[in-house]
Design a protein that fits this description.
Number of domains of chain A: 2
Chains: A alpha/beta, B alpha/beta, C alpha/beta
Shape of chain A: globular
Structural class of chain C: alpha/beta
Helix content of chain A: 10-25%
Order of helices and strands of chain A: HHEEEEHHHEEEEEEEEEEEEEEEEEHHHH
Largest interface: A-C, 37 and 34 residues
Number of strands of chain C: 23
Oligomer: heterotrimer
């Protein structure tokens, strides 16, 4: 208990310190919101391994004296260009942040279609504070996790993305965060709000790239509303650097006949933890929460999903695949909750991990909590190593061992990549997989077409 | 024995049977033929009382009693048997256990003494031999891993041991090769008797080469469109269902 | 639906006679004063004429227990247990100072066991394989059959209180070695106040010539039962052991907090089966046993095997995880479970398979059936330690829901610290298949019977693990437990 207090207090002190300089400080509702956040955080505190959702993830010590919020200068670090990710990225609509600070010079909003608003939180707090208030403020602060509450108090960056009723955009829209290029460790609490109104469709790609070597601690919260019959595809790519701690909480509400598809691809990061909570609120709502992670060194990746089936006829699907080398550690905790009366729920969850090293570790906890009877729910979890028989088979056909290993890893990951319905994104992620593997790979072209 | 009067029935709120009239007497074999979607299977489920098949109008009189409000197990005990188009697999329950439970439930209902294990084994052995059914089928779980032919033979075995008065055979020929078809229809023919009525539901005429009906009815659009003798089946085989407003398949 | 209404009616008729074992034996008992204190611990120890070391270990456990908070992580809800409102020692007066020969057993007790269908006389069964029974009535063992015959082959099968006198060195060495008193609050309480239970020792190379069985019966009011079972299988030996449990129908909840420890040496095997049918409480959820048991086996030797099979139909709350620590290389752990909850019953059960040795394998087959307003949880842990090279686990965990008022939950923890270990876990939850029910009903089988058949089929893989006679009994139990589940 004492330990926990010690870990919690510096964050509270930091809040007291920076409070007046946080964006929107003139808005009374926001001030109240922040206050509720810090109070909640003080009560709950920093999670410990006794917190069930953090059972397998120990938060490294974060010294708040060292980790400071970014200032304007931190954002002006020279960055030549944004690394291309998607194949025809030239006219990519994107917002780019460096060390958490928006960089209009690197961003591109020229082709933004009508009916879409896409702007940094700091800007939206000036242009449309009512909207943000309507999204954030409920009767009571809903966050029941320490770091989400801290985010509510500290939010200083983030993106507001809003698609009007019936507007459908095919091309992916990007949010790029480049971090790790500051002189001192940076702490950031981005808060994103994505709202898709009824019948709209959009694809969002969020990239978190560690482009330097300095430490940073990112504590993001993303609030998503997918309106009736709307479709949001939400892809996250984490290529954080070795010194990065990346926590992300995503809260999603899915309406009638709406679809939320997310894929979280992670390579890198000292600790990356994504907690996705989806509420399927309307009949016919569907979500696909999938991901892949490839970790080496002492990297640690934790994926947590919680899906609430609240009404009849909703479906959820989850496929997570992990490759763990060296002393890397993977965690998957998934929970499907079928509430009373949520009949005809269909839920499927799968977690598979491939261990490449004797010192790698995988912990999985796939949970089902079911209170309705007319349901079809299943989960599966496996861990294992590369199939020696398959390896031998390939080698006996003349494929060199290193290549054969890579091929088997690629084939293992491929099952998860199939969950990505956007072809361009799938191909790009396949490229990252190949990039991660030791030399001597099948090329993306050969692989994807196979 | 069976008298269906102006029978209307809905499935999921949609009317499938739209006024069926049909009389079947003891000792007779009737064939109901019709294209896909004509309501053939619905008729068999309505007669046997499956949940979700709602009678909205009309009556099904069975020896003078109206079946429509009766639970399926009571209908079965009263002697109504349905040979399923797709017999259901029940993992973990040995066929022999299932048959014994069924036989004794029906006997209890009829006020007869239950068969003890010895009597039952004797009876079932005799029946399997009579029908030329392999004994290992009794030990296996109900229909689990059975081939299409085995499943249908299992239906005939159940029919033989339960000794129904009215047997409804729903697309018994589907998924059978010629040899299996012969075995199954031989089984049915053995069970033909003066006390028993049989209703054969089928799409194709070929089953009727083996189980020769006394009457043939054409079911389309939820109604009996035409009735006749067995020659009607040949006519249908030749001309198809086109004249009943159904496109050739 | 008229069918359902009919069933509900039928069920009402049944309910009163449903729990067949709910009678009370009218017998004079001797009890320790109500409540828990060091004096009570001393009283129990003195009653059993125990050596000093055992009293010391009881007191140590008791003092530690006082410092332990009630656990809070479990799923079942129940009010805090009033530890002072219960008796910790109750014995039929006629038992006097410990076990006696069969001829001397109180005829009332013999009648009780006869009524429960447990033969307390040495008679060969139909199958030809005799079964030795240790009968535990409230806090004491009242009879053990076939003792002499077993001893011919060197097998020791006796009440643990007797073992403490007869072979204290074995008890001292192994008791608490698998479940230390610090393990959890209920185990700690047991370590302080355990009263009796069974002790089994199978010497090297001996295949126990008969099935061993302990039959637990709680009779006295407001009494907790804290028994302790210890089974040691020496190198190359084998034993199959079965426990059964029942209790009278009483309105208050009674606590049963047992400890079972199993130890297998090289090439030894213990097969432990449980048919748990404690009083589950009435249809409104009143009364019933709290069954909070710690069961754990240690596969100490290489190539050894421990297999747990449980059929859990009783108790208001079942909360237990029969587990295996697979320490010896190539050792095998198995857990086969059927848990059926109906009415307001709650169950939080599962297993832990801790793989430490090389090429250790474990298999978990869990079948949960929830009906009525009951709530059920499978909670399991599979841990592959860093040295568990080539270890394997397979887990299959299926839940069946009967009716829309019940709950079924699955929480497996899977921890792998070795790349060559292979873990496979599968779980499904679904409702009882309507097509199957209709098929059975079309053949004349009434709905309740049809459900029982389908459920028995669903459980078959586990039922097959039970010794033949118990499998039949368990099958019937499945049927009885589901009465009134449709509605």
């Amino acid at each position: 208990m004492v330990m926990q207090m010690n870990a919690t207090q510096p964050f509270v002190d930091q809040f007291d310190d920076v409070q007046s300089r946080l964006p929107g400080s003139k808005l009374p509702w926001l001030e109240a919101f922040r206050k509720a956040g810090i109070e909640k955080f003080s009560t709950i505190g920093v999670p410990t391994i006794k917190t069930e959702a953090w059972k397998y993830t120990r938060l490294p010590n974060i010294d708040c004296k060292e980790f400071r919020s970014a200032n304007w200068e931190n954002g002006q670090v020279a960055v030549n260009a944004v690394a291309e990710f998607l194949s025809d990225a030239l006219n990519q609509i994107r917002l780019v942040y460096v060390n958490g600070i928006i960089r209009p010079d690197l961003s591109n909003l020229t082709n933004l279609p009508d009916g879409i608003s896409f702007e940094p939180l700091t800007q939206a707090l000036e242009s449309d504070p009512e909207f943000i208030e309507s999204q954030l403020c409920t009767e009571e602060l809903k966050y029941d996790q320490g770091f989400s509450a801290l985010n509510a108090a500290m939010m200083e960056s983030g993106t507001i993305f809003r698609v009007a009723k019936g507007v459908q955009v095919k091309e992916p829209i990007e949010i790029v965060h480049m971090n790790g290029v500051a002189d001192a460790p940076i702490i950031g609490h981005p808060h994103n709000v994505f709202v898709l109104e009824a019948g709209s469709q959009a694809t969002l790609v969020m990239r978190h790239a560690g482009i330097g070597t300095s430490a940073y601690f990112n504590n993001a919260v993303t609030e998503i509303v997918v309106g009736d019959s709307a479709i949001l595809k939400h892809y996250t790519l984490q290529t954080d650097c070795m010194e990065a701690i990346h926590l992300s909480t995503v809260n999603v509400r899915v309406g009638k006949d709406a679809t939320y598809e997310t894929f979280n691809f992670a390579i890198g990061g000292r600790l990356s933890r994504t907690e996705t909570r989806v509420r399927l609120e309307g009949r016919g709502a569907h979500c696909n929460l999938s991901g892949a992670y490839m970790m080496r060194g002492r990297e640690h990746c934790d994926n947590i999903t919680i899906v609430d089936h609240l009404v009849p006829d909703t479906t959820a699907r989850e496929v997570f695949k992990g490759v763990l080398d060296d002393e890397a550690r993977g965690v998957f905790q998934g929970k499907l909750i079928v509430h009373k009366y949520a009949q005809r729920t269909n839920g499927h969850q799968l977690s598979r991990a491939l261990l490449l090293s004797d010192r790698a570790e995988m912990d999985a906890k796939p949970e089902l909590e079911i209170y309705a009877d007319d349901v079809k729910c299943s989960h599966g979890a496996t861990t294992g190593q590369i199939d020696e028989n398959a390896l031998f088979y390939l080698r006996s056909r003349g494929v060199p061992e290193a290549l054969a290993r890579n091929l088997l890893i690629q084939s293992f990951i491929a099952e998860a990549l199939e969950e990505i319905s956007d072809e361009k994104v799938r191909e790009a992620i396949a490229g990252l997989v190949v990039h991660w593997l030791p030399a001597d790979c099948f090329s993306v072209d050969e692989w994807v077409q196979a | 024995m069976l008298e269906i009067k102006n029978l209307h029935a809905t499935v999921g709120g949609k009317e499938i049977l739209k006024g069926i009239n049909l009389t079947v007497n003891a000792g007779e074999v009737h064939a109901i033929m019709g294209p896909n979607g004509s309501g053939k299977s619905t008729l068999s489920y309505v007669i046997s009382g499956k949940d979700g098949y709602e009678v909205t109008e009309g009556q099904i009189l069975y020896n003078g009693i109206d079946l429509t409000e009766m639970e399926p197990e009571i209908r079965a005990a009263e002697g109504v048997f349905l040979a399923f188009q797709y017999p259901v697999e029940i993992p973990g329950v040995p066929n022999v256990t299932f048959l014994k439970e069924a036989v004794n439930a029906v006997r209890r209902h009829r006020g007869e003494d239950e068969l003890d294990a010895m009597q039952f084994v004797k009876m079932i052995k005799a029946k399997t031999e009579e029908l030329g059914i392999a004994k290992d089928m009794l030990k296996r779980a109900v229909n689990v891993g059975f081939s299409g032919g085995e499943k249908k033979r299992n239906e005939i075995l159940q029919m033989a041991v339960l000794n129904p008065k009215l047997a409804v055979l729903d697309e018994t020929d589907s998924g059978l090769d010629i040899d299996a078809l012969k075995i199954v229809s031989d089984g049915v023919n053995q069970l033909r008797s003066d006390e028993r009525a049989i209703l054969v539901i089928t799409h194709y005429q070929r089953l009727l080469d083996h189980i020769v009906p006394d009457f043939v009815h054409v079911l389309a659009h939820g109604k009996i469109q035409r009735s006749g003798g067995k020659e009607l089946a040949f006519e249908l085989e030749e001309k198809g269902y086109a004249e009943y407003g159904v496109a050739a398949e | 639906m008229s069918g359902k209404a009919q069933t509900i009616e039928k069920v009402r008729e049944f309910t009163d006679e449903k729990y067949k074992f709910g009678f009370v034996t009218d017998i004079e008992t001797e009890s320790a004063p109500k409540g828990l204190s060091e004096d009570i611990v001393r009283f129990i120890s003195a009653k059993k004429d125990e050596p000093e070391w055992l009293l010391e270990s009881r007191l140590k456990a008791y003092r530690h227990w006082l410092t332990m908070p009630d656990p809070e992580w479990q799923k079942p809800n129940f009010p805090p247990i009033d530890y002072q409102g219960s008796y910790y020692y109750s014995a039929p007066k006629s038992v006097g100072d410990g076990p006696q020969s069969l001829d001397e057993v109180d005829p009332e007790i013999l009648k009780t066991y006869e009524k429960l269908g447990i033969p307390l006389f040495e008679q060969e069964r139909l199958s030809g394989i005799p079964i030795a029974v240790d009968a535990v009535f409230d806090s004491v063992s009242v009879a053990t059959t076939f003792k002499a015959k077993l001893e011919e082959s060197g097998v020791i099968f006796c009440p643990i209180s007797e073992a403490i006198q007869r072979c204290p060195e074995l008890v001292k060495k192994y008791m608490g070695s698998v479940v230390p008193y610090t393990d959890n609050k209920h185990a700690c309480l047991n370590s302080a106040v355990f009263t009796d239970g069974s002790f089994v020792y199978i010497p090297k190379g001996v295949k126990c010539p008969m099935e061993l069985s302990t039959y637990f019966r709680i009779n006295a009011e407001n009494t907790g039962q804290f028994e302790r079972t210890l089974i040691i299988a020496e190198e190359g030996s084998y034993v199959s052991y079965l426990e059964g449990c029942t209790a009278p129908m009483r309105d208050e909840n009674q606590l049963h907090a047992a400890i079972v420890e199993l130890i297998t040496m090289d090439d030894a095997e213990i097969k432990y089966s449980t048919v748990q049918n404690w009083y589950p409480g009435d249809a409104e959820g009143k009364g019933g046993i709290y069954n909070f048991v710690t069961k754990r086996g240690l596969c100490k030797g290489k190539n050894s095997k421990i297999s747990w099979t449980q059929v859990e139909t009783g108790s208001a709350i079942t909360w237990k995880y029969p587990s295996c620590i697979l320490q010896g290389d190539n050792s095998v752990g198995e857990f086969y479970s059927i848990a059926i909850t109906n009415n307001y019953q709650q169950a939080d059960t599962g297993t832990k398979m801790i793989h430490l040795g090389k090429n250790t394998t474990s298999r978990i087959i869990s079948k949960g059936i929830s009906a009525g307003k009951s709530d059920q949880m499978y909670r399991g842990l599979v841990r592959m330690g860093p040295k568990a090279v080539g270890a394997r686990n397979y887990t299959q965990c299926d839940s069946l829901l009967v009716g829309d008022q019940c709950g079924a939950h699955t929480v497996p923890y899977i921890e792998t610290k070795n790349k060559s270990a292979v873990v496979e876990h599968e779980a499904t939850t679904s409702k009882i298949n309507e097509e199957q029910l209709f098929y059975l009903r079309q053949r004349g089988i009434p709905t309740e019977k049809a459900i029982a058949l389908v459920v028995n089929g669903f459980c078959r893989e586990v039922l097959q693990q039970l010794p033949m006679e118990f499998a039949v009994e368990a099958q019937k139990l499945v049927e009885i437990s589901l009465e009134g589940s449709v509605g």
